[in-house]
């Protein structure tokens, strides 16, 4: 069966109000079901690109979501289908309780009280926060806030999940829990991050952006094992982390999970 791409971006240009170019002719296609990482140095245009996917920003060029142009007349449907999770969860958590935060989107869609309650229950169960409905987001841990922010978009039943720096400022346990959560979601995902191991854990494909352009696009192993490419665009893997080493250790690329709960393996130089 033929499926339309989840995301189509054609020749997209954008400049900030002061005239600074942010995107310089970006072309991008993401197929339904893909998990795609976008990496690059600060100022590469990564987050600016994400904000075009649900119409927060509008540049010159073409952007389509599941075949629907991102245009004013389509924004309501686009924003239902694209779940955008910001880097700082406090940007999405502003209501008195977690329930109210997660219910905000469904209420604005006009769902009934019963439908809203079902949507909130489903989203909180999916992110592992069931039972915290009446708690204030201000009293959650930072990792819980990240998951609550994801729940605020999952309650809208999106077709595309877009995350900006999801692992930033998380402690190791919270980072692992978030990674496992994302690995279990069978939904099209785009992840912008500087955390290259996180990309390796969660994405099959990686784009490198620099100076407002896509400068490389390939499978996660090819991109993250290309030291010259990474160095040329201000990217570095943590010391001792080699994706080819982990590939040999048995990573299940089809399911984005390590088999039988095996822990990641870290090499110390053997890349042959």
Concise account of the structure shown:
The protein has helices at residues 46-52, 75-81, 98-108, 113-126, 142-154, 172-183, 196-202, 220-224, 227-232, 243-248, and strands at 7-15, 21-30, 35-39, 60-65, 68-69, 82-85, 160-164, 188-192, 205-210, 213-219. With 272 residues, the protein is α/β, with parallel strands linked by helices.
What does this structure look like?
This protein has 272 residues and is of the alpha/beta class. It has one domain (7-94, 158-261): P-loop containing nucleotide triphosphate hydrolases (Rossmann fold). Helices cover 32% and strands 22% of the residues. The chain contains 10 helices and 10 strands. It has helices at 46-52, 75-81, 98-108, 113-126, 142-154, 172-183, 196-202, 220-224, 227-232, 243-248, and strands spanning 7-15, 21-30, 35-39, 60-65, 68-69, 82-85, 160-164, 188-192, 205-210, 213-219. A 6-stranded mixed β-sheet has the order 6-7-8-3-9-10, with helices on both faces. It has a 4-stranded antiparallel β-sheet with strand order 2-1-4-5, covered by helices on one side. Helix 3 packs across helix 4 (113-126) and helix 3 (98-108) packs parallel to helix 5 (142-154). The model is unreliable at 245-272 (pLDDT under 50).
